Structures are given as structure tokens and as C-alpha cells.
Amino acid sequence: RIGKRAGCGERRGRGAPAALLRFENPRQLTPHLGDVSLWLQWWTNEPAGPAFLDCDWDPNSPTFYDYPKLEWFREPTARLEPWVAGPFFDGGATNLHIITISAPVIVDGSAIGVAAADMRLDQIDRMCSPRLHEVGQRAALVSRDGRVVSSTDASWCAAGDMLEPELAEWCARAVDDHWSVGPQGQTLARMLTFPWGVLSVPD
Fold first, then answer.
1. Residues 16-33: tens digit of each pLDDT
2. What are 25's strand-pairing partners?
3. Distance between CA 103 and CA 124 in Å, rounded?
4. What is the pLDDT of residues 51-81, one digit of tens each?
5. Are 141 and 150 in contact (CB under 8 A)?
6. Hey, is 111 helix, strand or coil?
7. Is 132 exposed, middle or buried (0-12, 13-18, 19+ CB in 10 A)?
8. Which pTM does this prediction carry?
9. Helix, strand or coil for residue 100?
10. Cβ atoms of residues 129 and 36 within 8 Å
């Protein structure tokens, strides 16, 4: 994705890894993108091979993809550190539930770009659900804010759903603890290298 204000590089959707770069220095971009303010070099894996995913860059359009405001782009460039966004529904782009792993490209102490990779949530769910069943009771892999990545029981909480408010709030409060036990007997085991946790709830 290449853009004057934001964006040069590649990003693969449909579950495939890729990279996305953002440039903010107009002198770097003007020779290449004099006619647009935003741009993403975004590639998806399709059955027939890699395909370029175009987005709506018209700020007056209801489907305008204003990605500099999105978490996967905003947080790593502000924090100058890698970030995992989601799960979220990527409306106007892949139109899928995904997670995005992104990292800033830093030059002279400032972020000039972002490298990012998307993963489809349904694919993560299929990989993780069998292991969650080994917990022995209802269990879910949840994000930092209580959104479900994978679970043992879709009727309780399906991938992409938000936990019930009280339980989601408890998970968010326990974000800094590696192991937490809740008042209803629920437990949350936080991962050391990823902002997710394994939630188990008594049947």
C-alpha cells in the first residue's frame, strides 16, 4: 500500500501473511502518488493465485477505507511497537472476520510505515478449537478486550463474538495478570507472547 499520508507496502488477506508499509514523508511519495492521499499495496491469496485488493479512496464515499484511523495501523505507529488488532470484521476491505498483526517501520525514531499480516478468524478457530476441548470444560481463546478468537461451544460464544459484558469486563481487568480466578470460578490464563488468554468457565 503506498500513499502520501499513509501507506506503501503489501498486505495479504484471506489468511496469508504479507507486509504493509506506510510512508509519511511527502518527498518520498510525491513522485509516485501525486494523485492520491492514501494507498495500500494489498494482496490476497485466492485459489487462482495472488490478487490485488483495491479499496475505496474517495473520502466522500460511504465505503471510504480510512485505514490510518484503524487500530491495526494507528497503534503500532503511535506506540512504535508491534500490535495485534482484533478479531474484527474488516468491512469495506476483505469483508471477513480477521486479526491483523502489524509492526512499525521506524527510521530515525519515527514510524514511516507499517508491515502487517492478516489471518482469517475461521482458520484460527479451526486450528485452536481442538486444543481448547482438552481443557475439559467450556473454554475460549479471547482477546485483550474479551472478543472471542476460538471456543469449544459456538452456542455459548462463537469466534468473532464479544463475551457477555460482565465476563468481558472481567477479562479486560485481568489483562496484566498471567493467571486469574474469577468470582464464578472462571479462570483466565494469559499468553506470554500474545495479547490473548485462555478462558475457562465451569459448566
1. 433 344 444 434 444 445
2. none
3. 20
4. 888 888 888 998 888 888 889 999 999 999 9
5. yes
6. strand
7. buried
8. 0.76
9. strand
10. no
Span 153-164, average pLDDT: 94
Helix (H) or strand (E) holding 83: strand 83-89
Closest CA to 2 of 27, 25, 30, 22: 22
Q: Label residue 12 by pLDDT band (50, 70, 90).
A: very low
Amino acid at 9: G
Look-up of cell digits 485483550: 144
Alpha carbon distance 27, 30 (integer Å): 6
* DSSP result, 6-18: B--S-EEETT---
Bridge partners, 141 (sequence order): 150, 198
Q: Please count the residues of the chain.
A: 203
